[in-house]
Design a protein that fits this description.
Blueprint (H helix, E strand, L loop, with lengths): L1 H16 L10 H57 L1
């Protein structure tokens, strides 16, 4: 069974990689349009991946900044209270 499955997968892979004969002409305008669209899709995929990966990092940095600001504000309030006394 596994031998048959392996042979089928190999045959499908070979048939998909062998180009079929085609008599179509792709002009320069269509080629540039295709490349532009492909470039846009590739950039969009990388931007999505970067957004998903960087979202937790940005959230962590924002929480740290907020904690530092709170700490600095409480220290300033303590100094102000000490100088009033």
């Amino acid at each position: 069974m596994w031998n048959r499955l392996r042979t089928g997968i190999l045959l499908a892979g070979v048939l998909l990689t062998v180009p079929a004969l085609s008599f179509a002409y792709v002009g320069p305008g269509a080629g540039v349009t295709l490349l532009g669209a492909l470039w846009a899709v590739i950039v969009a995929v990388f931007m999505v991946i970067a957004g998903v990966v960087l979202w937790p990092v940005r959230s962590l940095l924002r929480k740290r900044r907020a904690a530092n600001r709170t700490r600095e504000n409480s220290a300033e309030d303590a100094k102000t209270q000490a100088s009033k006394s």
